[in-house]
Amino acid sequence: MIVKASEAAESMSARWLKRVVGLAAGARRVADDLAAATLGRDFEQRAQHIRDHYARMGDDPFGLDPEFTRYGAMLTGVMHRRYFRTEVHGIEHVPPGRALLIANHSGQIPIDGLILALTLFFDANPPRLIRAMVEKWMQTLPFIAPLIARLGQVVGVPDNCQRLLERDELILAFPEGVRGIVKPYTRRYQLEDFGQGFMRLALATRSPIVPVAVIGAEEQYISVGNLEWAARAFGLPALPVVPQLMVPGGVLPLPTKYRIYFGEPLKFEGDPADERTVGEHVWLVRQTVQRLLMHGLERRRSVFF
Fold first, then answer.
1. Strands 170-173 and 99-103
2. Which position among 111, 214, 259, 294 has the lowest Cβ density within 10 Å, counted as fewest Cβ atoms?
3. Is the pLDDT of residue 299 over 60?
4. Domain for residue 273, yes or no?
């Protein structure tokens, strides 16, 4: 009887162990399926392509860490895939090698830059890393500046941009600067004046320009004004008034649907020191981005779907 009881206990333990193993395997399959649905089943291949690319190029002069960018894509990919459900058009227009992506800027917080970077990682074939030109004041933020560098973003001064273009990098620039990102809701999708620095660099390095329209960021945070006096007091470039931030949960952006349109590459020639030539070229790029915005807005049926 004792032997039979022992055998029964062992049999029960084996059954329970089998169930636990089965549940664990099932949970892992569910987790893998969720990860694949969010990041894509080719995520690791994309990350490896980036690692291999920069291994061939050698050390990055600005501290880019390809492995760190992989973790960044893993953590933020859900925003691109699930939260904003980014819809991408014309990404095949992005040429291999050096190029300047010139996009409209909006949203109070530069989430649009992050979504563009994720778009080139998840949706381009082969995947690309964007090197964004960030505002100088961001380098003064504790803890943020080192992260920015490891993710491949650099301070937007001409020397930095030229060095990257000469390495055949893909550069993202927002010629509206801070003026674009703090626009009130009443001026949504109306471009501010473009700075001219990007065009001088394009001419000096013979780099094509890809116009980009980002739709959806204007509505993620609704700004009704800008407290310029408070911004000056805190040493900030702007301090928009966003009522949304005053309600519980309002710190999260609204789940608008992002739509990104890449236009055909534009190639320019001329003397980077010729103000008239540079100004005419910049006007043409601005008009092209504005047309892309209008095209996308005409096709849009809902801010959220």
1. parallel
2. 294
3. yes
4. yes
